[in-house]
Amino acid sequence: MPSLLTVRGNAVQPLLLMFPFGLLAVAVILDVFRALGAPHLVGTLAYCTIAAGLVGGAMTAGALWIDALATRDRTAGPQRFLLDLAVLVVFAVVLLLRMRTPDRTAPTGVLVVELLGLTIAAAGAWYGAGAVRPRAERGMSR
Predict the structure, then answer these.
(1) Alpha-carbon gap, residue 24 to 91, rounded angstroms
(2) Which residue among 25, 52, 62, 107 is the one 20 to 30 A from 17 at the CA level?
(3) CA–CA gap between residue 71 and residue 131 (Å, rounded)
(4) pLDDT given for residue 137 in this prediction
(5) pTM of the entire structure?
């Protein structure tokens, strides 16, 4: 079912998803650099980037849920929302675990959980992009 959130006929959902996805991906990259020996400041920057990604992700999830309710999409909308919610929960747990460290850096186990969360986010973005393609690309006619 087509999205109601559009700008000039293009779905807004991929744009809404990419900003928090990008922030969370940058946080994982910064944590990998920190694990390879970068200064503690890089780990603290990754912590702040995760916090910003969670705020953006929560706002995006709200917009996507409203769109799914408005279109009465009973399958793809809730599935995309649950994938996005899983990513937010994983990174919220990561953020809480990092709060316990004095310099807000991620231990190796937390880095593995971040990579798992990023994999779920990539799967959700791929699934969501396939669900909001224009009808002509999916082979459907009006």
Answers:
(1) 8
(2) 107
(3) 13
(4) 53
(5) 0.80
Higher pLDDT, 86 or 127: 86
What is d(CA 59, CA 49) in angstroms, rounded to the nearest whole number? 16
Report residue 84's pLDDT band, with 50, 70 and 90 as the boundaries.
confident
Q: Give CA–CA dist 125/123, Å, rounded.
A: 5
* Helices marked H in the chain: 13-35, 40-71, 76-99, 108-131
- Domains of the chain by residue range: 12-127
Asked if 60 and 20 touch (Cβ cutoff 8 Å), the reply is yes
The Cα–Cα gap between 83 and 124 comes to 6
**pLDDT of 139 over the 70 cut:** no
CA atoms within 13 A on the CB side of 94: 33
Beta bridge partners of 6: 11
Read off the pLDDT of residues 30-59 as tens digits, 9 standing for 90 and up: 999 999 999 999 999 999 999 999 999 998
Looking up tokens 């779920």 gives 120
